[in-house]
Amino acid sequence: MLSQIRTGKSALLKHGSGLARPGFTLMELMIVITIILILIGMAAGRYDRSVQKANEAVLKNNLQTIRTSIDNYTLDKQSAPQSIEDLVQSGYLRSVPTDPMTRAKDWVPQFDSVVFSPDQSSTGMVDASDLQWFDGSAHVRYNRCAGWSSLVARRAHNPKVVSSNLTPATMGA
Length: 173
Known about the structure:
By secondary structure, this protein is mainly α. The chain has helices at 2-7, 11-15, 26-77, 84-89, 138-144, 148-156, and strands at residues 108-112, 124-129. It has a two-stranded antiparallel sheet with strand order 1-2.
């Protein structure tokens, strides 16, 4: 044993065939690296999905804020806003929200002739959506469901809505 310490040679090399050496084989290293790459790929996929879900949640919140501001502006001023900037100038929004999908303030206003109360003097913007339309994601649901079915549902709970204005012709049917 003392001679092994002095020379630094292992007992396997001294007594065996000389093939066994300390360390890992190339095959072992390749297997470990493959497993690590698979785990990184799985983590990256989950991260992308979590970022997408977070962006959709922000989008949903922004759209709800804009729609609530449109409703409040219309009911308070008895006139619908003509743009999202009208909501900012009147103090119903602090600033135009940034679309989390496009990273821009590129909301598309939707106009119609729906009135919320008999005292309303003019019509204008009734909804807003964003420019992105991705098939198969919740992103589309927020835009398409935000149309007339959502508008009618919001107006149905509002006692100031004139029900005669919610006809199939005004709902786009």
